[in-house]
Amino acid sequence: MGATLWGNLDLIVKVNNGEVIATDWLIENEALHVNGNILSEQDIWVEQLDENTYQVNAAVTFIPNAQTEDEAFKEAINKFSKIDIDKYYIEDTLNNLTETTIQIATVHFSDFENPSIGVYI
Predict the structure, then answer these.
(1) Running DSSP on this structure, what letter comes out for residue 75?
(2) Which 8-state DSSP code applies to residue 17?
(3) Is 111 left (phi over 0), alpha (psi -120 to 50) or beta?
(4) Do 107 and 9 touch, CB atoms closer than 8 A?
(5) Rg of the Cα trace of the chain?
(6) For the sheet containing 5-15, what is the strand order?
(7) Cα angle 31, 37, 38; round to 5
(8) How far apart are CA 100 and CA 114, in angstroms?
(9) Looking at residue 100, what DSSP letter applies?
(10) Are 9 and 90 a contacting pair, CB within 8 Å?
(11) What is the pTM of this model?
């Protein structure tokens, strides 16, 4: 197929050491290894929920091996129905790297739209 699927990575994370995560000026993960596959973050948003808990939403891309659109979505759904990572690292433009522990993680590959980065599906 050669096409790229766009999706949304949703995380609830806890900060391990009481650090405050910057919610602006974040650097996207170019190669986030999930379930033996690579997701590339294209944009990221972080919102603080309480003292140590944050919601992370990232627009991600995935390049499937499938030959048709339907097969590609099925492949992505199968590969990311469960997430095998327990740590997530957030870096800001000042090179502050914060390790977090993932509480909840999901990836959705259908109906992704983000006009701010020019993606309409």
Answers:
(1) H
(2) S
(3) left
(4) yes
(5) 15
(6) 26-27, 87-92, 97-108, 5-15, 53-62, 37-48, 32-34
(7) 20
(8) 26
(9) E
(10) no
(11) 0.83
Give the pLDDT of the chain (121 residues) as one tens digit per residue.
457 888 899 999 999 777 778 777 889 988 999 999 999 999 999 999 998 999 999 999 998 898 887 888 889 889 998 888 999 999 888 888 889 999 999 998 865 555 555 544 4
**Cβ(61)–Cβ(88) below 8 Å:** no
Nearest one of 53, 26, 55 to 42, comparing CA atoms: 26
Q: 112-121 long-range CB contacts below 8 Å, 24 or more apart?
A: 112/6, 112/7, 112/8, 112/59, 114/43, 114/59, 116/43, 117/42, 117/43, 117/59, 119/6, 119/42, 119/59, 121/6
Q: Are 41 and 60 in contact (CB under 8 A)?
A: yes
